[in-house]
UniProtKB/TrEMBL annotation:
<feature type="compositionally biased region" description="Basic and acidic residues">
    <location>
        <begin position="1"/>
        <end position="38"/>
    </location>
</feature>
<feature type="compositionally biased region" description="Basic and acidic residues">
    <location>
        <begin position="45"/>
        <end position="97"/>
    </location>
</feature>
<protein>
    <submittedName>
        <fullName>Uncharacterized protein</fullName>
    </submittedName>
</protein>
<feature type="region of interest" description="Disordered">
    <location>
        <begin position="1"/>
        <end position="97"/>
    </location>
</feature>
Length: 273
């Protein structure tokens, strides 16, 4: 019985040792696990801190980018607002300029219409012919402006107002002058003036001008000449037909016995002289 008890004690001792060894092994395993867990936890914490640091860096960058973007947006909005204001100002100025231009055009048009209306009222009185003829079929006519607009210069009105003489429109006078309050125009009329139409009497051949001159002298007296006419000019401008050739006037004139003997002299080509 004692033997059994010793065996039992020995077995328990073995079991305790085995249990102690297992407990020791479990303790080792637990410490190893705790160590690994501590290392993993530390690694995780370090990684978490790195992640948090990266996140903070990223947040700072995003914040800076958002701030920079906001600054750019604010700057763009400011520039856009300034540009819009400038364009609005330009549009207002352009609209004002367009309105002023339209007002000027309308005012000029009204002034032009008024001026044209006044201009159309300008007219000449009845033209009066001079008694004295100044050249062949030519005399001067005089007329006075019947109306002169206050806004129009008298010389312009005189030179730009046409007149009708013998049914023919004449645009401008030869001259204008102011006689007191009257504006007088003068026209040189060289058509439809039969009273100023002088003519040549029978042509006389007086022979060669001189030997070898190859010129022959022809003479004729001027008819229908009156004492108040310009004798020399009437003679010089009266045309002639001599031996089939037209001459606008004689070579020269000679007043033989005064105006009643005004003679035209032609020196015409003649190879026989």
């Amino acid at each position: 019985m004692w033997k059994e008890k010793e065996d039992q004690d020995s077995k328990w001792a073995e079991e305790r040792k085995s249990h102690q060894r297992e407990e020791q092994a479990w303790g080792e395993e637990k410490r190893e696990r705790d160590r690994k867990w501590a290392q993993e936890s530390l690694s995780h914490q370090q990684e978490h801190r790195r992640w948090e640091e990266e996140q903070r860096d990223q947040d700072r960058k995003w914040a800076q980018e958002r701030l920079s973007h906001q600054d750019e947006r604010d700057k763009w909005n400011k520039e856009k607002q300034q540009e819009d204001n400038e364009r609005a100002h330009e549009r207002n100025e352009w609209e004002g300029e367009r309105q002023r231009w339209a007002d000027n055009v309308r005012r000029h048009q009204e002034e032009w219409e008024h001026w044209e209306k006044e201009r159309n009222r300008v007219r000449w009185g009845e033209p009066q012919g001079d008694e004295r003829c100044t050249a062949y079929e030519t005399r001067f006519y005089t007329a006075t402006l019947a109306y002169l607009p206050p806004s129009m210069h008298w010389m312009q009105a005189c030179m730009e107002t046409p007149i009708e003489i013998h049914g023919v429109r004449v645009d401008s006078p030869e001259s204008c002058e102011k006689r007191g309050s009257n504006i007088v125009g003068r026209w040189k009329v060289n058509f439809d003036e039969p009273a100023c139409r002088t003519y040549w009497e029978t042509f006389s051949d007086t022979g060669c001008v001189s030997d070898g001159s190859r010129k022959r002298r022809i003479e004729a007296r001027l008819e229908n000449l009156r004492p108040e006419y310009d004798w020399v000019e009437m003679c010089a401008t009266t045309p002639a037909e001599i031996r089939g050739t037209h001459y606008s006037g004689p070579t020269y004139c000679h007043p033989r016995s005064g105006w009643t003997g005004m003679t035209g002299i032609w020196e015409i080509d003649d190879e026989s002289c």
